[in-house]
Amino acid sequence: MVRARNDRNATQHLTHFTTNARHFTTNASHTTGIISHRTTKATRPNVSHTTTITSHPMTKVTRPNVSRTTTITSHSTTKPTRLNVSHTTTVKNHSTTKTTRPNASQTATITSHPTTKATRPIIITTSFGARLGNQLFMYASLIGISRTNGMSPRIESKALVNKCFVIPSSILQAKIDTSKMKGQGESHGCCIFDAKYTKLEKKDTRIGGYMQSFKYFHHVQNEIRKHLTFRENINTPAKTFISQARKEVHKNHTENVTTVGIHVRRGDMVSNSFGYTVADKGYFDRAMDYFRKKYKKVVFIICSDDVSWCQRHLAGENVRFSTKNSAEVDLAILSSCDHVIISVGSFGWWAAYLAGGEAVYYKDWPKPNSPLAKLTKHDDYFLPQWKPM
């Protein structure tokens, strides 16, 4: 009986222990549920991410991996949540950019700018073997033709025009190799406009000839005039000479004085069988009278390669002669006058063009039916507003 009582007591204790253990487990489960309720509620973030990728041609663009998964571990029955990331990629592409196909969670708009390939400019040049007046035609025509054809003009820095004028450094080169350049010469003659120069092949080119027509460059005359700014060592003595001439003729009354430059070309043209002619005294008298009648206070400034002839035939009260200046300074003097009278030759032509005022020219040049006449067209050589006499 004692043993049976003990067995009953042991059974009761075991049952009590089990009940307590069950109660403990229930409490623990309840506690766990609370922890789960507090710590495992996940809010899905709303992520909007925009990436712009700009690529250059032939550049492989690698797409970022935008599928991201986040797992939240929980003590209860909370389900792991994958973040939903909306990713928009914009890649600019207009060329051969190779792209990787975006995955399903991406939206891709592909647009791109190609990188412009740097190209060497197409060079155009000419040779400068002549004197100043002819070189000015060559230079101005080179600029005009280059602008018409979209080419880059170049001259060697040793050219005479660069010693007289402030030529832009971008046009100057120490040495130009023309051995592999395409040559292009005149078809009709020195003083006839050649339309083929308006449609040159896109190759490095050396143009030849005198190209003495304003039609090659008059459309860029503002640029030409800017390039042909005299250097100070030439411009200063020219301005000083003109100022002194005005004072000598009109004393201290130099206001409203009109200066008229006269270029008299004789020299090698006096006895020339090719067709060159020289203007006589009668031409200069008529031209000077034209300006005397038009302006009350006039000063005539004469520059010539034959000053002694001019002093014998054209001297006057209101006439002054340039006797000790260089050819470059003479050109600066003439082009600084208000108006210009020219005889023959490219030197006087450029004096009138750079002066920009009225110009009177000798109409009996060249000699009719001469070789030079066949190479010359007045409408191509003289500006339409210039006055023939």
Report on this model:
The protein is α/β, with parallel strands linked by helices. 35% of the residues lie in helices and 16% in strands. It is built from 11 helices and 15 strands. It has helices at 2-39, 132-149, 160-164, 221-227, 232-250, 281-294, 307-313, 327-335, 346-355, 371-374, 378-381; strands at 47-54, 85-92, 106-110, 123-126, 152-153, 155-156, 172-173, 182-184, 205-207, 258-264, 298-304, 319-321, 339-342, 359-361, 387-388. The strands form 4 sheets. The chain has a 6-stranded parallel beta sheet with strand order 12-11-10-13-14-15, sandwiched between helices. Strands 5-4-9-8 form a 4-stranded parallel beta sheet, covered by helices on one side. The protein has a 3-stranded parallel beta sheet with strand order 1-2-3, with no helix packed on it. It is globular. Mean pLDDT is 78; it is low at 1-116.
